[in-house]
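ESCALATION

Customer reports they have been waiting on this structure for their group meeting. Please prioritize. Original submission:
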Amino acid sequence: MMNNKKLFKVGTILVVMGAMVYMTGSLTQTIASIEEKHNLEPFQKLYVDTSGVNFQIVEGNEYNLELDIKSTRQVEFNNKNNMLEVKTSSLSQNFFGLSFFSFLFNNDKEQDLIVLTIPTDSEFEVVELSTGSGNLNADKIVSDKIVFDISSGSVVVDEIETKDIEVDGSSGSFKVNSLITDTMNVDYSSGSVRISNIEAVNAVCKVSSGSLYLQGDFSESVKATSSSGSVQVELDKGYNDYNYMLKASSGKVTVNGDNWGNMSNVTGDKPLVDVSVSAGIARVNTK
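Update from on-call: job pushed to the front of the queue and completed.
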């Protein structure tokens, strides 16, 4: 005959096994593949907050949202009052034990995908895009104001037109192939920023240990600073078309391949190129 201690151990094991079977069964239903397409009402304000998914913004003939979810992730969206909000969350964060089973049942599956289709030539009042560990890709975004918040994810946008753009990132990457803006503010830690074909009035960009690449034309000023990271500024006009303020602590600043170190050359009403590095390296090249 088993004593009380043995009975307690056996009972505990049975309870745990039962709970595991229950959660496994529930999870099997939860992670069933979801493929949905939702027609949307037109909107002027877009707010996206995703992590662990691939989010795409593509041009088409109408507003719709397509979901291809193969994990425990939840997708919530709200489309009313001239606004669209899209947010993802993981069930494994909300229920005890689901994290292990999510890995067990979903380890080899494709990453979740969300596709937002907007009509060609759409223009918005505000667009705020936040991504965690997933990827965000967009064909073209036109908005009065655009805000990006990037953690360890990757953002690639082919074309942006805006009055004001703000980019804040940590270890993720941010790439834009064409940017037209009045003001641009970029603040990055150890990530990578690459923006080409820029037409801007003013730009202020800062990286810590990350890398920053800017190429284009700045009608008033461009300011690029770095701690231990790298900066490269490719200007669309000639050397004499700009004023310069260059500063290097233990780092290095070159202009057209020549090491200039600390320098201030401001003469006349010309766009200002303001570049400073601490222990990093900065390269400025003109036409």
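Sent to customer with the following note: The first strand starts at residue 34 and ends at 39.
Escalation resolved.
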